[in-house]
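Researcher: Good morning. I'm working through a list of sequences from a screen, and I'd like to move beyond sequence-only analysis. For each chain I'm collecting a predicted structure so we can compare shapes side by side. This is the next one on the list. No need for commentary yet; just the structure.
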Amino acid sequence: MAGKKAEILHAATVLFAERGYNETSMAELARLTGVAEGTVFYHFKTKTDLMLAILETVKENMVAEFDRYMSTNWFDSGLTMLEGVVAFYLYVVGQHPEWFMLIQRHYPYELARENKECRSHLENIYNTLIDYFEAPICNGIKDGSIREVSARRYALLTFSMVNGLVWLRFNDLYDTGSLYRELISSCRQMLISPHFNPNQE
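Model: Good morning. Structure tokens for this chain:
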């Protein structure tokens, strides 16, 4: 997506993430992007349509980032792949905080209670992210670096632990960056196979 529509989408993503959906007006968005308010409504008929477009774009951008990372990196084992996914997730959060701040705000879930399309977008975002955590666990079970576990359940547990630190970071409660080594160590201890020798990776 190019041009003014993409610019409006990006600006709205940042405003909704930093200030909130209800606190952002379409008039303010128009002023920020240097267009007439009618231009915003030309591209997005309602504010809800704009939110839905943002969620769809966020998911597409996340997929592009992770697919690029997974296709250009090689891992010795499923366990090291999982550690790589954890590290990359935190990297993407640092590069695009507005994506993650947006989906951690209350409003998208409030809208999802009554809007099936919004609920579908949120489910797709989270299912896609958890897929990226599940794939290395499946690989690790096959190559012996990860013990026999329910891959989906442990992907959800791992993701929740990582995303919990992201939430604390966004709310300025702790210096979560200082916990990175402990985070990786916890993931490893939770999943490593007792028969796996990491020195042979």
